């Protein structure tokens, strides 16, 4: 198998990354429309929240990618100018940026109920398909891992066996999807699935970044790792606060009864 692995369609050779990325976004959105519970959000609010998520995800994805590849961006700035800032994207930045966009819009429109649980499986589907595109792209995608002697090592075209970190992530996400499906039928986890997904995914990404030959420009860690750490702390605090709130409400209900 050679990389990039171009997709042949009617005699055309199409690069795999934009194809799989677009397919992931399309199918993920279609899945969301199919499974979302309409009673959780008013139609008048849904569009604004979606636009907030889209804007936040774009800003977060390109902003964190620019920090992650700061030296490359600085080198490209002279030729491409501001376009150098939008040449890369990262899922971690997209997720965290999208979260901030959603929460900001929800405050503006006065929507207080949690809307994240319905997004978990669509996000997993979209990320998995996107990572397939990253894997098929090979070295030029800059998501492959460092040199390894593990049996999982793959030669992406430079004669060096490397960690296929994209495949590791796909395997993790498929296991996570199975766990999320099991928890959807558990009443105590309702309203916590998105927080749990984000916490586990950010923990995974923080760890897997050590297997990548990326620049560790910020205190021995990468920008993505610092963003993951911030997100992990946020979600640990959020889950603990929500759990305490539910426990307090349950105790008050028992006392009143």
From TrEMBL:
Coiled coil: none annotated. It comes from Ectobacillus ponti. GO terms for molecular function: phosphatidylglycerol-prolipoprotein diacylglyceryl transferase activity. Keywords: Cell membrane, Membrane, Transferase, Transmembrane, Transmembrane helix. The lineage of its organism: Bacteria, Bacillati, Bacillota, Bacilli, Bacillales. One of its GO terms (biological process) is lipoprotein biosynthetic process. One of its GO terms (cellular component) is plasma membrane. The chain crosses the membrane at residues 14-33, 45-67, 79-99, 120-139, 166-184, 191-208, 223-240. This is Prolipoprotein diacylglyceryl transferase. Belongs to the Lgt family. InterPro entries: Lgt.
């Amino acid at each position: 198998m050679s990389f990039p692995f171009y997709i042949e369609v009617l005699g055309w050779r199409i690069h795999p990354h934009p194809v799989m990325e677009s397919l992931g976004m399309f199918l993920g959105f279609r899945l969301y429309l199919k499974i979302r519970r309409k009673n959780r959000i008013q139609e008048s609010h849904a569009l604004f929240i979606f636009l907030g998520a889209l804007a936040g995800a774009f800003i977060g994805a390109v902003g964190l990618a620019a920090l992650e590849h700061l030296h490359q961006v600085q080198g490209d700035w002279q030729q491409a100018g501001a376009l150098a800032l939008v040449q890369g994207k990262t899922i971690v930045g997209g997720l965290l940026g999208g979260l901030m966009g959603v929460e900001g819009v929800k405050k503006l429109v006065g929507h207080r109920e949690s809307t994240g649980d319905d997004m978990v499986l669509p996000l997993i589907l979209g990320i998995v398909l996107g990572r397939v595109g990253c894997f098929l792209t090979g070295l030029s995608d800059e998501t492959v891992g460092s040199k390894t002697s593990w049996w999982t090592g793959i030669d992406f075209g430079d004669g060096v066996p490397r960690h296929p970190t994209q495949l590791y992530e796909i395997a993790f996400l498929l296991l996570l999807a199975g766990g999320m499906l099991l928890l959807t039928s558990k009443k105590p986890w309702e309203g916590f699935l998105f927080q749990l997904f984000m916490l586990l995914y950010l923990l995974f990404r923080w760890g897997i970044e050590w297997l990548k030959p990326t620049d560790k420009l910020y205190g021995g860690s990468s920008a993505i790792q610092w963003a993951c750490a911030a997100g992990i702390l946020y979600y640990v605090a959020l889950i603990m606060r929500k759990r305490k709130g539910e426990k307090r409400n349950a105790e008050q209900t028992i006392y009143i009864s």
